[in-house]
Specification:
It is a single chain. The chain is α/β, with parallel strands linked by helices. It contains five helices and twelve strands. It has one domain (5-226): Carbon-nitrogen hydrolase (Nitrilase/N-carbamoyl-D-aminoacid amidohydrolase, 4-Layer Sandwich), CATH 3.60.110. The protein has a six-stranded mixed beta sheet. It has a six-stranded mixed beta sheet with strand order 6-7-8-9-10-11, with helices on one face. Helix 1 runs parallel beside helix 2 (63-72). The radius of gyration is 16 Å and the shape is globular.
């Protein structure tokens, strides 16, 4: 069983509703990240547009991401509206995409278009990763419910205004210290829908003690990467 895991957070620039172009940008980020797991922001494939058409796992426009993951051995956790419909996460690897998660805690405006999902963990090389999307991270009960499933790390895609740049860090540190897990948050950078004309960027990864391990700038196309150490289970957590 793998004892260390390389993880990256990426914030590619986004063209509204253009899944094909955004998939190419995601593929470029996967190759540049050189990590086993790459986390992307909320609705990164379409932009934060609540009227975006759900992206199905068999969508041929996702082929560039699949190819990049096959070349690099990466699992990409991509933000997109997905069947349900959910504000979701597509898990993409060499075998193709699958719907891995649907956002649980929806804003009222989101609930007019989407339905909530359920707390979820996925296994990557023996690591159990809890999944979250943006507002989920603001609810301690979400992290608690996910931790109850057994998690070693908590990964989230978010979108915040530039004046909210500290929000995802505050939430990440709480989850990390409450549950003794590392946390990776990919934050949107550049303009997108829903009134987010100026977003925060500053995607980052934190240790189980809440220490900042790696962080991007506010600019689009930036990537931060680190390697997390022995699995918490191996430290008798």
């Amino acid at each position: 069983m793998a004892q260390r895991l390389s993880i990256a957070v990426a914030q590619p620039r986004c063209t509204a509703h253009d899944v094909a172009a955004n998939a190419v940008a995601h593929a470029e980020a996967v190759r540049a990240a050189d990590a086993r797991v790459v986390v992307f922001p909320e609705m990164s494939l379409t932009g934060y547009h609540l009227d975006a058409v759900p992206v199905t796992p068999d969508d041929e426009r996702l082929a560039p991401i699949v190819a990049a993951c096959a070349e690099t051995g990466t699992l990409a956790l991509v933000g997109a509206p997905v069947p349900g419909p959910h504000i979701g996460i597509l898990a993409v690897d060499a075998d193709g995409p699958r719907v891995a998660y649907g956002k649980v805690h929806l804003h009222d405006s989101e609930a007019a278009h989407f339905v909530p999902g359920e707390p979820t963990v996925i296994d990557v090389d023996g690591w159990r990763l809890g999944l979250a999307v943006c507002r989920d991270t603001g609810f301690p009960e979400h992290a608690a419910a996910t931790a109850a499933l057994g998690m070693d790390g908590y990964v989230a895609g978010v979108v915040h205004h530039d004046h909210e740049a500290e929000v995802h860090g505050e939430r990440a540190r709480r989850v990390a210290t409450d549950h003794g897990v590392w946390v990776a948050t990919a934050a949107f950078a550049g303009p997108t829908g829903g009134g987010f004309d100026h977003t925060s960027g500053r995607s980052a990864i934190w240790s189980p003690t809440g220490k900042l391990l790696a962080e991007t700038s506010p600019a689009p196309d930036d990537i931060a990467r680190t390697v997390v150490g022995n699995r918490p289970a191996d430290r008798n957590r």
